[in-house]
Design goal:
five-stranded parallel beta sheet; two-stranded antiparallel ribbon; elongated; acetylation; ANL_N_sf; AMP-binding protein; 232 residues; alpha/beta
Length: 232
């Protein structure tokens, strides 16, 4: 079966990227991906590849990157030995000015990989794609299903460290319920600029303004030890 679908936009804002990461995490979770599972990825350098990585981080899954090109035997071997059950691939993509049909090559590799039950397809080039109903799913359709406000992944990937509203206090603080152990900061993706924060050994004094018993030697030591190296 051949289907034709136009590709997604190639530009995302910061908030859209985080939202796509949450949506991809929901989609993979619905396909049965759990912490420690392998998610096979057969994509060129693209925004969707970044989104997949964010989703794997959120689910504590492991990303298995597969090579593009004529590597049928290697791809089949990696899928069988990794135990991956979900594959994310491009329908077609442009490599070095040439359009390659990635999905058709993957389908040949999957003939010997019955454990793979779901294939998410990102269409980057508007070309017909071989399709297996019941197994293949369009990437954009899978992401359109979530997340929902207040859902299990809401706020999991953001530039804020606020506690998600749907988690008990003990769980949100990284400790078992009822435990008296010291809380562990929850995992989060923080996108602030570390250079906006003042380092512990920084000062407002310019070179030569700080008194030193050994003169130039002290200034040289400060120059070498200052972190981050603002003088570079």
């Amino acid at each position: 079966m051949m289907v034709d679908q136009h590709g997604p936009a190639d530009v995302l804002s910061h908030s859209q990227l985080l939202d796509q990461g949450e949506r991809a995490a929901v989609a993979l979770a619905k396909l049965g991906v759990r912490p420690g599972d392998q998610v096979a990825v057969l994509l060129p350098m693209s925004l969707e590849s970044v989104v997949v990585t964010l989703a794997c981080i959120r689910l504590e899954a492991r990303r298995l990157t597969l090579p593009l090109g004529d590597h049928l035997g290697f791809v089949r071997h990696r899928l069988r030995t990794s135990g991956a059950r979900v594959v994310i691939t491009a329908g077609s993509c442009a490599v070095d000015g040439t359009v390659r049909d990635i999905k058709s090559g993957l389908d040949r590799a999957l003939w010997a990989c019955p454990e793979v039950h779901s294939v998410l397809v990102v269409q980057q080039v508007p070309r017909p794609v071989p399709w297996q109903p019941g197994r293949d799913v369009w990437w954009h359709e899978a992401l359109a299903a979530g997340p929902v406000p207040g859902g299990p992944y809401a706020g999991a990937m953001s530039s804020s460290t606020d506690q998600p509203m749907d988690q008990p206090a003990d769980r949100a603080q990284g400790r078992p319920q009822g435990s008296s152990a010291a809380p562990v900061p929850p995992a989060a993706l923080i996108f602030d600029d570390p250079l906006d924060r003042r380092s512990a050994d920084d000062s407002d004094q310019g070179w030569g303004d700080r008194s030193s018993v050994d003169g130039a030697r002290g200034d040289l030591l400060r120059f070498l030890e200052e972190k981050p190296p603002h003088h570079l």
